Amino acid sequence: MLKVYDVEKSYKAGGALSKDKRKIIKGVSFECEIGECLGIVGESGSGKSTLGRLILGIERPEKGEVLLDGVSTCHVKTRVGKMSAVFQNYASSINPFFTVQQAIMESLRMVKERKEGQEKQVELLLNQVGLPASYKDKYSHELSGGEAQRVCIARAIATKPKYLLLDECISSLDISVQLQILNLLKELRSAYDMSYIFITHDLQAATYLCDRLMIFKDGKIEEIVAVQNLKHVKSSYAKELLRKTISL
């Protein structure tokens, strides 16, 4: 299980030489169950992506801790093969000098997949994300946005992680492609029995994919609610977010 305990994070404000700090994450605590899809929903600048980096162990919290099966995610061995991520900017997520096959093999090597089986595994992964095996020889500049993000997803699931963090992974895509990716994520979650942490500003996408929603504002949790109980949210911010979505 993934557990976040009283996590806080600040950054320097006003330049590198400044002594002033701005607190971005403010005493955040929650749990994400095995097999659950937890949405972290909030507007731009709310601290969602910073929280995502803390969850992944990319950054260390100043206070509190993030534990995966009781061990801090700041330790590389804790997360290798157990946690993966797909980010918003698919264009910069793939090395432009790598073929699709080479990009996916980066993950397979992390879990020491036997070399002779790597190419077949790449083809299987491409098939699972809806791409033909022939795409393994393409480069990122030859892919559409949706295709590139599918490759990023294939690379992320190659290690068969327990947890997959998705940080605004559909926001740069056309609306029709967004729905395709959401449906793909639903299928993969069932096939791999993964847990998702879905970070987004899009409440509609979150309700489509997630079991529970964490409403996030100004570095704090406003409310955590099951998707089926969303119309019963209590905080004024959550109510306003819901009202805006319904009026779209």
If you had to describe this structure to a student in words, what would you say it looks like?
With 248 residues, the chain is α/β, with parallel strands linked by helices. It has a domain at 1-82 and 164-178 and 199-248: P-loop containing nucleotide triphosphate hydrolases (Rossmann fold, 3-Layer(aba) Sandwich). The protein is built from 9 helices and 10 strands. The strands form 2 sheets. It has a 6-stranded mixed beta sheet, with helices on both faces. Helix 4 (100-110) crosses helix 5 (115-128) and helix 4 runs parallel beside helix 6. The mean pLDDT is 90.
Which structural traits does this protein have?
248 residues, alpha/beta, Rossmann fold, 6-stranded mixed sheet, 4-stranded antiparallel sheet, 10 strands, 37% helix, globular
Q: Biggest β-sheet, characterized? A: 6 strands, mixed
Order of helices and strands: EEEHEEHEHHHHEHEHEEH
| Mean pLDDT value | 90
CATH superfamily of the domain at 1-82 and 164-178 and 199-248: P-loop containing nucleotide triphosphate hydrolases
Content-based structural category: alpha/beta
Low-confidence sequence ranges: none
Count every helix, treating DSSP H or I runs of 4 or more residues as helices.
9
Shape: globular
What proportion of the residues form beta strands (DSSP E)?
25-35%
Query: Order of strands across the biggest sheet?
Result: 6-7-8-3-9-10
Q: For this structure, what is the CATH class of the domain at 1-82 and 164-178 and 199-248?
A: Alpha Beta
